[in-house]
Amino acid sequence: MQLKHTELFRQHCLINGEWADSENGEREDVINPAMGAVIGSVPQITPAQAALVITYAEQAQVGWREKTGKQRAAVMQKWAQLMLEHADDLAALLTAEQGKPLAEAKGEIVYAASFIEWFAEEAKRVEGSVLAPVQASQRMLVLKQPIGVCAAITPWNFPAAMITRKAAPALAAGCAMIVKPAEQTPLSALALGQLAVEAGIPAGVLQVITGSAQDVGKVLCASPVVRKLSFTGSTEVGRILMAQSAPTVKKLSLELGGNAPFIVFDDANLERAVAGIMASKFRNSGQTCVCANRIYVQQGIYPALVKRLVEEVEKLKVGEGSQTGVTQGPLIDDAAVSKVREHLDDALSHGATILTGGQPHALGGTFFQPTVVGGVTSAMKFAREETFGPVAPVFSFADEAQVVAMANDTEFGLAAYLFTRDAARQWRVPEALEYGMVGINTGLISNEVAPFGGIKQSGLGREGSRHGMDDYLEMKYLCIELGE
Ligand SMILES: NC(=O)c1ccc[n+]([C@@H]2O[C@H](COP(=O)([O-])OP(=O)(O)OC[C@H]3O[C@@H](n4cnc5c(N)ncnc54)[C@H](O)[C@@H]3O)[C@@H](O)[C@H]2O)c1
Ligand SMILES: O=C[C@H](O)CS(=O)(=O)O
User: According to its UniProt record, which residues of this chain constitute the active site (predicted)?
Assistant: First the structure.
C-alpha cells in the first residue's frame, strides 16, 4: 500500500493533539483480511490513559463551544475538503484493513465526507425559539446548547463513514468527540484524525484512541463527564453499553443489528428488482447492517427472478480489494466465515437448495463464494439471524398479508425493501412494515440527508439529516421576569 500523503499512515493514538503510544507499550497488530498480512499496529492504551483523554476533551470543549457555528463550520469544511483531496490514499488504507473493493472504499470516503459537509452547514442553523409568554411581565425562550463531551464506538464495516456520521454532528454542535474505532480497522480512523489536525480542529476536540474495547468502553461509559455515547455495532454490544451507561444516565444513540426483508411482488420490474438485490445484498460482501438478509419473492415471479439473480451473482468477481475489477472482497475474519457456514448448513439441513456458490472461495482465507439459496423457510436461521455475508436466501410467498407478517416477525427493525409497480401498495406495505427505513423500488437508501436508524432492537435515535444534530444538543428554557 503506497500512500502519496505518508502522514496519513498513523500508528499512534491522537490524544490532545499529540500522537501517543500506550503508557505500557502494548500494541495490537492490524491485519489485511484478504492476505492475512500484518499491515501495521496501534497502541493498546490503558484505562488511566482513557480517563486522561476524557479530561483533555472536557478542557478542549470549553473553547470549541464558544466558537460560533459559522467558525466551527469553516474548520469542518476544510476537514471534508482534505478528505476528498486525499480520497485515493484514504480508500487504499480502508481497503487494506477492511477488505472492501477499492471502488467501494472510495465511495465510502465520499459518503463519509458528505456527513462533515452536511453538518458543517447544520452548525450555522442551531436555533432556539421564543415562546409566547403566559405572563405579561415575563419573556420565555429556549436555547440550544452543546451537550458536552461525547464518545463514539464504531464498527469495522464502514471504518470512515461510521466515524464522521457521529463526529460531524458532535463537532458542529460544539461538542468534543472521543472516537474508539473497531480493533480491526483503526488506521482509517487515525488517518481521519491526521486530516482533522491539518484542518485546524483544535487539540482535544477530536481524539482517536485504540485499545481494549471492553476496558476503554467501561471507562467511557462510567465517566459522568461523557454526556453522550454514540455506538454502531451489534445489538449484543449495544445492550452492554446501555447497561454500562445507566449509572450516569448518558444520552445514547445506538445503530445496531438488522435483518432486512427484501420483498418482490409479482408485478415488480424484474430487472430492477434483481439489480436492487445485487446492490443491497452484495455491498461490502454482504457486511452492512442494511443488507437484504431475507429475500421474499412472490410465487408468480419466483422462477424468473431466481434464474436472473443466479446469472448476476455468477458475474461477481471475488478477490483482493485493490485488484482491478474485483467486486467482492473477503469477509472480515474467520468468525464471519463460520457464521455464513453455520447459516448455510442449517438451511440445507432444513431442506434448502444451493443454487450457486455455497463454498469457501478457492482463494482461501476469508474469501467466500457469492451464494444464492432457494427454498428457504422461516424455520431456518436465515429468517432469524443477521448473516452478514455474501449469501442471498430466497423465500417464496403467496400474498401481501403473508409476506408483511413474515417480514415483521423479528426483533429487529432497521431497513426493509419492496419492489412493486402498484402505487397503492407502495404506500400500504411500507406503512405496515415495522422498520426505521424502507426502500421502495431501490436497494440503496443511505445518504447524509435522510434520518438513518432503526426501531425495536435495531437501535435508538437517528443519524444524518436535520435530525442528526438533536442528540448532540440540549434545550435550555429561560423564563425572564421583566419587573425590577
Ligand atoms: N445499525 C447500523 O448502522 C450498523 C452499522 C454497522 C454495523 N452494525 C452492526 O454491527 C455488527 C457488526 O459490526 P461489529 O462486528 O463491528 O460489531 P461489534 O458490536 O462487535 O463491534 C462494534 C464496536 O464495538 C466495540 N466493542 C465490542 N465489544 C465491546 C464492549 N464490550 N464494550 C465496548 N465496546 C465494544 C468494538 O471494538 C467495535 O469498535 C452487525 O450486527 C451489524 O448489523 C450496525
Ligand atoms: O452497516 C451499516 C451502515 O450504516 C450501512 S450504510 O453505509 O449507512 O448504508
Answer: 255
Which strands make up the sheet holding 473-481, listed edge to edge?
A: 129-131, 138-146, 473-481
State residue 419's pLDDT score.
Answer: 98
* C-alpha cell, 56: 483533555
Q: Is residue 181 part of a domain?
A: yes
Alpha-carbon distance 91 to 159, whole Å?
10
- Write the pLDDT tens digit of every residue in 399-452: 999 999 999 999 999 999 999 999 999 999 999 999 999 999 999 999 999 999
- Number of neighbouring beta carbons within 10 Å of residue 52: 17
Dist. CA 3–CA 122, nearest whole Å = 33
Atom of ligand 1 nearest to the CA of 256: 1
Neighbouring-strand partners of residue 231: 153, 254
C-alpha torsion sign, points 240, 233, 175, 474: negative
pLDDT at position 98 is 98
- Backbone angles phi and psi of 62, in degrees to 5: -60, -50
CATH number for the domain that contains residue 374: 3.40.309.10
262 in Cβ contact with 282 (< 8 Å): no
How much distance in Å is there from the Cα of 332 to the middle of ligand 1?
Answer: 13
* Residue 1 lies inside a defined structural domain of this protein: no
Q: Domain check: are 129 and 35 in the same one?
A: yes
Contact indicator for 75, 241 with CB cutoff of 8 Å? no
Q: What does DSSP say about strands 176-180 and 206-208: parallel, antiparallel, or unpaired?
A: parallel
CB atoms within 10 A of CB 245: 21
Residues with CB under 6 A from ligand 1: 153-157, 182-183, 213-214, 217, 232-234, 237, 240-241, 255-258, 289, 386, 388, 414, 459
Q: Which residues are catalytic?
A: 255
Q: How confident is the model at residue 35 (pLDDT cuts 50, 70, 90)?
A: confident
Residue 246 burial class via C-beta count within 10 angstroms: exposed 0-12, middle 13-18, buried 19 and up: exposed
> Has the ipTM of the complex gone over 0.85?
yes
Domain span at residue 175? 6-256+458-477
The per-residue pLDDT for range 222-253, each reduced to its tens digit, is 999 999 999 999 999 999 999 999 999 999 99
> Is there a single domain that holds both residue 319 and residue 245?
no
Ligand nearest to the CA of 186: 1
User: Quick one: 235 and 323 in the same domain?
Assistant: no
**Any atom of ligand 2 within 6 Å of the Cβ of 158:** yes
For cell 483503526, name the residue: 186
Instruction: Quote the pTM value.
Output: 0.97
Instruction: Output the nine-digit C-alpha cell for 376.
Output: 428457504
